[in-house]
């Protein structure tokens, strides 16, 4: 603790006093927008699953989230995850890929555009009405990945928290948005309605594994799509700063 | 597909043509810095574990990463994860918390400051020399969380990829940085040197669970600290845009 002791204590002080900036000889001072810094940090914590379940976005981040999802950030992030996911090769007919639907294959941005982008508390019956219109657009980079996965011969399982009674409208919406040739569309049966998503989705993946499938990829916008038992060889987390499903 | 068909196709076009900006009546155009957008997206993908193992940061993001780790972003993110982690109560003496060491309790920023913040390929022998100096400063928000966890009566396990031969210097470094009273410091034995970190750390967590501990929290800067078997009830991912350990 000789030459670095000054650095060490300066570093610690910085970490306890976030209002100042770490000073290095080479660093130019930078004006940082406070709200942007705060909301960027909130978004990283949300995306890395560090937050306790949250029910609506922070009010002070409403404009930040809106700018993100309507601007180039969200699109860029969606494209990147699709591109990263596409590097795999497959072996035989038992390789499977699991896709979530909402905010993974289909976008509900038109709905959230009318509901504060996650600022308003989730309204089941309003959202059901939107789902029942069956007009959610495809997330284009996901459609691209989906098509590649199908072309490579993967078995495709669509595993959604949507309820069984929305099967027909969901199929219609998916097909109109360009999705085809999946192996199985799994929706929540009435007795699964109150299971936590992580458990429900784990049980469904357990069944796939029991049937001999190797889950090679899993794409979802929620960590509850990806974590639990029978986890995929690789998981791909799509950005979603608008809502959290435990 | 009536009123929303235009939106739907516009949305899809947007996603395939990232050079334009999603247009909504309410959206003000915003000049976005290209490199910043690209590197912000890269960082999110890295932090959410969407990238295949990566060996060095993208060259074009060298300044971005440097500004992030030396500026207020990294500090803000470290503080947030520490604060989010501190909401737990405990039951009895079998509740445990697992901490990784490097970039979780101790910061190697002084080393990475001299080595391009992840731009240079990792140099084992150079890094060993740095570790052997034993002068890595504490990450202050982690020290705060650590202290709270100890005060609440958790058993604290330090689970690190550092090798057994670095035990003494690691203990000295930890104590000089303010960390005390852990229950067990687990380092890699020589025969564990070539295990993947995810497997090595899972096996060590398996042993804790076998001994009757409930792993309530796990703090680490790598997903290989957090994923695998015997996962913690809650995992806390600290930011680290500088290196990846599979």
From TrEMBL, chains A, B:
GO molecular function: acid phosphatase activity; nutrient reservoir activity
InterPro entries in alphabetical order: Acid_phosphat_B-like (IPR005519), Acid_phosphatase_pln (IPR010028), APS1/VSP (IPR014403), HAD-like_sf (IPR036412), HAD_sf (IPR023214)
Keyword terms of this UniProt record: Glycoprotein, Signal, Storage protein
Domain of life of the native organism: Eukaryota
Role description: May function as somatic storage protein during early seedling development.
Family: Belongs to the APS1/VSP family.
Protein name: Acid phosphatase 1
Native source organism of the sequence: Raphanus sativus (Radish)
Gene behind this protein: LOC108833324
